[in-house]
TrEMBL record:
Domain of life (superkingdom): Bacteria
Keyword Transmembrane: yes
Name of the protein this chain belongs to: Uncharacterized protein
Entry keyword set: Membrane, Transmembrane, Transmembrane helix
Transmembrane segments: 15-34, 54-76, 108-131, 137-156
InterPro entries noted in UniProt: DUF3267
Organism: Vagococcus acidifermentans
Length: 184
């Protein structure tokens, strides 16, 4: 195998700043998208939902960070049951990792994208059930989605990698490999 790209996202201060800038734009974009979704669903008012305040929304977001990383960990194990999974928080980023594990790029795309899809879908269901008000849903969903910026970055990188590429998860980021046949 030939290493074609090595990404150390944990220690690359420039990349961290860039991802945070992109996240600001994403929160605005997702705010409008989730606001439109909330208006389409327009659930009936449920007694008590208007009482949720900023503190409850922040608690929900904190829990979603844990759930988000847990989803990554679950899919790491689904696609490599023998791999070890660890979790951490460094440079303002929560992360799940399965160092030394190799995944075909399609499986790594699922690992990277699953939390966004699952949590966004779950939040839409919670909105439709009237558990969250449309403004709370919009804020929580937009902040969570913008926090997926690192996952979107992985998806961008692997979408640009050659067919048949393998992605190695590392404790600092990812490495992308191709077989020596692909590198000719």
């Amino acid at each position: 195998m030939k290493l074609i790209k090595e990404v150390d996202i944990i220690n690359d201060k420039k990349a961290i700043v860039w991802l945070n800038v992109v996240a600001i734009f994403l929160v605005v974009l997702f705010w409008f998208l989730f606001k439109a979704a909330a208006l389409l669903i327009n659930p009936p008012a449920v007694h008590g939902t208007s009482g949720y305040g900023l503190a409850v929304s922040l608690i929900i977001l904190f829990v979603l960070v844990i759930v988000h990383e847990g989803i990554h960990g679950l899919f790491f194990k689904v696609f490599n049951p023998k791999g070890t999974v660890s979790f951490g928080f460094k440079n303002g980023m929560a992360y799940a990792t399965s160092p030394g594990s190799f995944y075909p790029k399609a499986k790594f795309a699922i690992i990277a994208g699953a939390p966004f899809i699952i949590i966004s879908s779950g939040l839409l269901i919670v909105l439709a059930a009237g558990i969250l008000s449309p403004p709370q849903f919009t804020a929580i969903a937009a902040v969570h989605a913008s926090g997926c910026v690192g996952d979107f970055y992985w998806l961008l990188l692997i979408s640009k990698s050659p067919k048949g590429a393998l992605v190695e998860d590392t404790d600092k980021g990812i490495n992308i490999y191709v077989s020596d046949v692909h590198s000719l």
